[in-house]
Design a protein that fits this description.
Layout lengths: L2 E9 L4 E9 L2 E6 L8 E4 L4 E4 L1 E6 L14 H10 L2 E9 L6 H12 L6 E7 L5 H12 L4 E5 L10 H14 L2 E5 L3 H13 L6 H5 L3 H18 L3 E3 L5 H12 L4 E5 L1 H5 L25 H11 L5 E2 L32 H10 L6 H15 L17 E5 L4 E2 L18 E2 L2 E7 L2 E5 L2 E2 L15
Parallel strand pairs: 1-4, 1-5, 6-7, 7-8, 8-9, 9-10, 10-11, 11-12, 12-13
Antiparallel strand pairs: 1-2, 2-3, 5-14, 14-17, 15-16, 17-18, 18-19
Bound molecules: N-(aminocarbonyl)-beta-alanine (URP) and zinc ion (2 copies).
N-(aminocarbonyl)-beta-alanine binds next to loops.
Length: 457
């Protein structure tokens, strides 16, 4: 199917300009003024921006926590992604204890195969390290997976120790891979949780009180030092607060190569939500927890200044009913995570661009171009250029809507952004030239997403 998008304002990480875009064979084949071709379907997008398809490099779809399974699987999660303008996701294929990385990959391939409405790839989360797992990191590169994740928290489940972090970082340097880190001190969190439960304090607000900022700051600082000794590049996922970022800045000054991701929840929400009546605070139980409101604007500034590199969502959805409620008598049993993949672009546009906190070009950079460059997808993805995949989002800035759980495509019974106004409509979304959603509704009736083999940098 060939088409021409006519009259839109093209936005890349570098510039905004008016031009037509011609698409054929799934690729952008021409960009120019007054493009004509009778064989093409002409779409008038006058008055709208055209941005590259969003890339969310931090999702957890079809994740089994042991106690329950995420509300979104690859089908509903990727449908929500395209409805909101995200055309590529990278999910975490998580190694089970005693299993190999190949087994983790096979498991995730099975979960995702023939279910995805957007293009997709995986990072491998390593939870059980030994010499043969180290060797398997090479095999993952061959499978097109040059990125991994290690957890410094979730003791007894996912957490690894400093020796493993050091060895994995050395290996990643050797093979050109990148490791993302969940930075919180899991050992101390475990002590604080046990102590507070003994005092019979069980409500969701204790989630935040047992995961204080300082334990994210400590883990971030420790990671920076381990990376410095290992002389390896690192990626910090879901950074939530100013002080953790100060540790990154100090490390950068010492020459550590560190990339930072934050998420919309740390820009827009704050810890007051844990004081909501009853069990309502459970909706916001995620790790790291929401922080003091003062952090929101500081993080926006760091995005504008180029110190925060990417915005992922950490989409990890659990229904309030029956799933979050597993922790009604014990906050430590509330499954951690919240939904977000559907609303990332409209929230960033509304609360970042429309408020002049960031430019629209910077928005494209942190949500499309940089993720593509960092994770080995550029220039196939993440930009609007001749030869790139025709993953295109028509963003109409002349519409105002309210986010409501009842309208969402995400398969979950709430949204942390209920009632938030957004000053745009994700009017049309194209994945490799195929229209996959229109006005927030999925229009593609089969899962046409493909697995993306990525290269290391
Ligand atoms: O609470 C969160 N973030 N859940 C998802 C797993 C993780 O830590 O990224
Ligand atoms: Zn995490
Ligand atoms: Zn996560």
């Amino acid at each position: 199917m060939s088409l021409i998008l006519k009259g839109g304002k093209i936005v890349t990480d570098k510039k905004t300009y008016e031009s037509d875009i011609k698409v054929s064979g799934g690729k952008i084949v021409e960009i120019g003024e007054n493009l004509q071709d009778e064989s093409c379907n002409i779409i008038d997008v006058n008055g709208s921006y055209i941005i590259p398809g969003g890339i969310d490099t931090h999702t957890h779809f079809d994740l089994d926590t042991g106690a329950t399974k995420t509300a979104d699987d690859f089908e509903s999660g990727t449908r929500a992604a395209i409805a909101g303008g995200t055309t590529t996701i990278l999910d975490f294929a998580t190694q089970s204890k005693g299993k190999t990385l190949k087994e983790a990959l096979a498991e995730w391939n099975k979960k995702a195969e023939d279910k995805c409405y957007c293009d997709y790839g995986f990072h491998i989360a390593i939870t059980d390290w030994n010499d043969s797992i180290c060797d398997e990191m090479d095999d993952m590169i061959d499978e097109g997976i040059p990125s991994f994740k290690l957890y410094m928290a979730y003791k007894g489940l996912l957490q690894v120790d400093d020796g493993v972090i050091y060895k994995a970082l050395q290996k990643s340097r050797e093979i050109g891979a990148l490791i993302g880190f969940h930075c919180e001190n899991g050992d101390i969190i475990c002590e604080l949780v046990n102590k507070i439960l003994k005092e019979n304090k069980i409500s969701p607000r204790y989630h935040e009180l047992t995961r204080p900022e300082i334990l994210e700051v400590e883990a971030t600082s420790r990671l920076m030092k381990i990376a410095e000794v290992a002389r390896s590049r690192v990626y910090v996922v879901h950074l939530s607060c100013e002080e953790a970022l100060e540790e990154v800045i100090k490390a950068k000054k010492r020459g550590v190569d560190v990339i930072v991701e934050t998420c919309p929840q740390y820009l827009l929400l704050n810890k007051e939500l844990y004081n909501l009546d009853g069990f309502e605070g459970a909706k916001y139980v995620m790790s790291p927890p929401l922080r003091d409101k003062s952090n929101n604007d500081i993080l926006w500034n760091f995005i504008a200044e180029g110190i925060i590199d990417t915005i992922g969502t950490d989409h990890c959805s659990f229904n309030y009913k029956n799933q979050k409620e597993l922790g009604i008598n014990d906050f430590s049993k509330i499954p951690n995570g919240s939904p977000g993949v559907e609303h990332r672009i409209s929230l960033l546009y509304t609360y970042g661009v429309c408020t002049n906190k960031i430019t629209i070009n910077r928005m494209v950079e942190v949500m499309c171009t940089k993720p593509a460059k960092i994770f080995g997808l550029y220039p196939q993805k993440g930009t609007i250029d001749v030869g790139s995949d025709a993953d295109l989002v028509v963003l109409n800035p002349n519409r105002v809507k309210k986010i409501k759980a009842i309208d969402q495509v995400q398969n979950v019974d709430y949204t942390p952004y209920e009632g938030y106004e957004v000053k745009c409509e994700i009017e049309r979304v194209y994945l490799r030239g195929v229209e996959v959603s229109k006005e927030g509704k999925v229009t593609c009736n089969s899962p046409i997403g493909v697995y993306l083999k990525r290269s290391s940098n």
